[in-house]
Amino acid sequence: MAKRGSLTPLGPIMQLAYLPSDFDAAIRHWTEVVGVGPFFLLENIQLGDMTYLGQPTDAVFSVAIGYWGDLQIELIRPENDSPSIYTGAYAVKDQLHHVCILVDDIAKARAALLNAGATVLIEGKVGDSGAVIYADPGGGPGHIVEYVKPMDGGIELFAMMRDAARDWDGSDPLRKIG
């Protein structure tokens, strides 16, 4: 039996994330062709104490989140050109950009990443009580893994989005939050 990788025990993938060239066209594709939705739009996100490759950055981005069964689909729109995984070498478009894993302990995730030789790309705070790390475990652009410790209320927000998708009739495919 093959040995499991040292990052596997951190948790299962719960999200597939994309950085589309045309955000609006991607929303239409995912809702009208694939049937994912509704999407919930969170605009102008800026992580607290955000760093990119260890340096402070003021990157701002928006996301649309929808559910395909229990799998979360995230579409990302960068809102500025500040250094991040949404600009430069890691900004692969129109293909899988990263996957996401929810964790209870962000310090444990960071230690496992460093132990595995991964490159920490982005770190930051999510609200007052959450945190996130995006890392390259060795595959380069298109192979980023995101680890999120949700902020208070984050799990419930995701549950609301997932529940909205269960019997979605196709109406109101993009809903703004905040």
From TrEMBL:
Pfam families cross-referenced by the UniProt entry: Glyoxalase_4
Stretches assigned to the VOC domain: 12-150
InterPro entries in the record: Glyas_Bleomycin-R_OHBP_Dase, VOC_core
Gene3D superfamilies, sorted: 2,3-Dihydroxybiphenyl 1,2-Dioxygenase, domain 1 (3.10.180.10)
Superkingdom per UniProt: Bacteria
Protein name, as recorded: VOC family protein
Organism: Sphingomonas echinoides
